Amino acid sequence: MKLILSQEVEGLGAPGDIVEVKDGYGRNYLVPRGLAIGWTRGAEKQIQTIKRARDARSIQGKEHASEVKNQLEQLSVTLAVKAGDTGRLFGSVTPADIASAIKSAGGPLVEKRAIAIASPIKTTGKHQVAVQLHPEVAATVRLEVAAG
Questions:
Q1: Contacts of 40 (CB under 8 A, 6+ apart)
Q2: Which residues form the Ribosomal protein L9 domain (predicted)?
Q3: Which residues pair with 81 in a beta bridge?
């Protein structure tokens, strides 16, 4: 069975890869969990879109990761959120919120899965967030959460 991976599958491939798997594995595991879609001629556009998105997010090598780390550590990121009078947030700040705030602050495109929040951010003020850019390179982003 020929499938197109829509997410990373360990031991099989990355998003956008065309793989040949046994029928049962594809039909009973990969497709129902949304890890893959059936391969058709019309799916070629989807493959290209997935690969372009993957290339835009990926960081090529340790040197590139170090450059991105320097950009991130020099950046001052402010995130406006809804908060009460005491400075307590209605909800918490998510990695997706932080990734979009970094991008809107003029920083590089960071994948939300690379952002690690030590403890949930539920108050306004200054916080530090770790971003794992490469297995050997991690950056610390200064984040200011402001009531907006």
A1: none
A2: 13-40
A3: 147
